[in-house]
């Protein structure tokens, strides 16, 4: 038990995090009649969309799909202004949802959870914040996000740099004026690729420091077509059901005929068509895009050619072409004018593989090629994904077992939601679930609904404890690892496999069986079947 327990506020459930996941968890648990409090470290709600407010931040899932489905009234009354919503619009939407469902009264901001200890005797969790407040609750739900803890890169002399250091993951609310400034950006993942064109338009000069090139497809964002929106809204339920039937819970108009079965010319036409449509649908052209080497190579070559066409200087284009891995191994990026940015006179691409970064100096940065003076450094260097947030909280289950110890060899979970030895603890989009491989908002809803149904089931039996069985957990971990075996994702170094964080690697951060199979798993494991993988007592 925690020392300040006598002054603890007691609730049925504590939810950690007030992003998409935490808000919906509050809505569902409250509707079950549970007194619930959400603890949020930020000074406002929104999670990812609160923190990542860098210029150009935009969702790469279409806005009509990247939104809650739990309320048809909400779906009908909210209007998205663009095909792909900007960070600002998504944050407004999240705030609208919080007001509409009167969620704010149960959200406590500026509260960074540092400890969560399970008390065997009372079957309650004691949860403490950094400033010493303590909360007691039967259930703790971690809605802490898959990409919420930034990785601080190891760069020599970072402290010596006298200019301004900005991080895409914690961008200042008041914005940044780049006019007249010399700027460098480190990181060419989705975040870097999105903000590079916008910073380049404003800055005096922009250096893009690239270690590994990424594949990016054009977003072709556009204002929302009112006819498209109203048609979509007339059939929202059907669209949602159709999305659930796809692997990624997202309607990309995925091809069903294997690319291997069609001619090279036909594939070329289909790639071109999808390239013109824009967005992530490019990698869904054929079901064997990432599994058949010939089809994958064709798609990879296609994007290489596109980069070469867009970037006028062949030597710059050559540096932007990914050569270490094929398309689909890492998360595909979606851009708005990224490659074209390198045709600007005020942009310099520095390839860190041939010109290593030696470190920061007082006035800029030094590479093997020399020193460059800058006013600002932007870090778009990624996240400690999946386990980063939980590993920074002292979570202890039965008999004081530490979650970090339990996960020393990888994050064993049951369904990516529960952990044996940690009763009444739930994670939303936790490791071992499809999470970022699907439309995350809908993946969140799926988890919250399952958790709420299990809690209701336990309460109906007047049970105090819900806990994953060890056998069920072992079986799940094996299943997730087997599904990952041999996939391009598991063979490629990226944050998907933990390779971007020193000492971290795992084959089972992600369930790769696709949404329909995962939904079947949840159904079989849920209250309709008496929760066979859980002990409810
Ligand atoms: O992070 P990343 P991100 N020196 O890990 C580089 C989601 N997201 O924030 O590849 C030099 O992809 C690193 O280089 P390398 C989306 O799921 C979505 O951009 O390790 N470079 C890499 O280039 C996405 O996939 C949206 O060699 C260093 C970059 O930093 C995920 O978030 C928008 C370095 C990190 O790229 C993460 O994207 C934004 C060093 N020391 C994000 N350390 C949308 O919805 C790291 N790097 C559109």
Question: In words, what does this structure look like?
Answer:
The structure is a single chain. This protein is an alpha/beta fold. It is 31% helix and 17% strand. Strands 1, 2, 3, 4, 5, 6, 17 and 18 form an eight-stranded mixed sheet that branches. Strands 7-16-8-9-12 form a five-stranded parallel sheet, covered by helices on one side. Strands 13-14-15 form a three-stranded antiparallel sheet, with no helix packed on it. Helix 1 runs parallel beside helix 14 (440-460), helix 8 packs across helix 9 and helix 9 packs antiparallel against helix 10. It is globular and about 70 Å long. It binds 3-acetylpyridine adenine dinucleotide. 3-acetylpyridine adenine dinucleotide binds at residues 58-60, 147, 153, 155, 186-192, 194, 211-212, 331, 334, 352, 380-383, 436, 495, 500.
Roughly how much helix do the residues carry, as a percent range?
A: 25-40%
Number of contiguous helices: 17
The 3D shape can be described as globular
| Fourth-tier CATH superfamily name of the largest domain | FAD/NAD(P)-binding domain
Structural class, by secondary structure, is alpha/beta
CATH topology of the largest domain: FAD/NAD(P)-binding domain
How much of the sequence lies in strands comes to 15-25%
The pLDDT mean sits at: 96
């Amino acid at each position: 038990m925690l020392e300040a327990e006598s002054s603890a506020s007691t609730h049925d459930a504590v939810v950690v995090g007030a992003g998409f996941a935490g808000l919906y968890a509050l809505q569902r648990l409250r509707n079950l009649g549970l007194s619930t409090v959400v603890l949020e470290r930020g000074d406002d709600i929104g999670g990812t969309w609160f923190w990542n407010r860098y210029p150009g931040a935009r969702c790469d899932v279409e806005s009509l799909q990247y939104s809650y489905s739990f309320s048809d009234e909400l779906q009908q009354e909210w209007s998205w202004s663009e095909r792909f919503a900007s960070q600002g619009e998504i944050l407004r939407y999240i705030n609208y949802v919080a007001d509409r469902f009167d969620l704010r009264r149960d959200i406590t901001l500026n509260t960074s959870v540092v400890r969560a200890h399970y008390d065997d005797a009372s079957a309650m969790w004691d949860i403490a914040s950094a400033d010493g407040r303590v909360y007691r609750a039967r259930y703790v739900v971690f809605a802490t996000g898959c990409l919420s803890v930034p990785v601080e890169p190891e760069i020599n002399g970072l402290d010596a740099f006298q200019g301004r250091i900005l991080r895409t993951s914690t961008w200042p609310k008041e914005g940044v004026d780049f006019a007249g400034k010399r700027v460098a950006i480190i990181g060419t993942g989705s975040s870097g690729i999105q903000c590079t064109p916008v910073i380049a338009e404003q800055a005096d000069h922009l250096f893009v420091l690239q270690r590994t090139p990424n594949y990016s497809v054009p977003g072709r964002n556009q204002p929302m077509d009112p006819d498209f929106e109203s048609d979509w809204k007339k059939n929202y339920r059907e669209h949602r059901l159709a999305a659930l039937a796809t692997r990624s819970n997202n309607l990309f108009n995925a091809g069903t005929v294997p690319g291997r079965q069609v001619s090279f010319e036909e594939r070329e036409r289909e790639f071109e068509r999808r390239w013109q449509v824009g967005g992530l649908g490019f990698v869904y052209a054929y079901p064997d895009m990432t599994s058949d080497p010939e089809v994958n190579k064709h798609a990879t070559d296609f994007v290489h050619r596109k980069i070469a066409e867009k970037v006028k200087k062949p030597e710059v284009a050559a540096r932007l072409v990914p050569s270490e891995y094929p398309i689909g191994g890492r998360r595909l990026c979606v851009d708005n004018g990224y490659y074209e940015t390198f045709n600007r006179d005020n942009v310099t691409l520095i390839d860190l593989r041939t010109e290593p970064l030696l470190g920061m100096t007082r006035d800029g940065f030094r590479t093997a090629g020399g020193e460059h003076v800058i006013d600002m450094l932007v870090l778009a260097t990624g996240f400690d994904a999946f386990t980063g947030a939980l590993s920074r909280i002292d979570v202890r289950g039965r008999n004081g077992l530490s979650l970090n110890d339990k996960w020393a060899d990888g994050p064993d979970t049951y369904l990516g939601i529960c952990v044996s030895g940690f009763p009444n603890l739930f994670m939303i989009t936790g490791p071992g679930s499809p999470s970022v491989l699907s439309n995350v908002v809908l993946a969140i809803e799926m988890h919250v609904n399952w958790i709420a149904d299990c809690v209701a089931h336990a309460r109906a039996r007047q049970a105090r404890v819900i806990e994953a069985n060890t056998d069920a957990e072992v079986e799940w971990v094996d299943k997730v690892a087997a599904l990952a075996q041999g996939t391009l994702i598991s063979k490629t170094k990226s944050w998907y496999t933990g390779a971007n964080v020193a000492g971290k690697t795992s084959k089972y951060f992600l369930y790769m069986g696709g949404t329909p199979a995962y939904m079947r798993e949840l159904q079989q494991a849920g209250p309709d079947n008496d929760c066979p993988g859980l002990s409810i007592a």
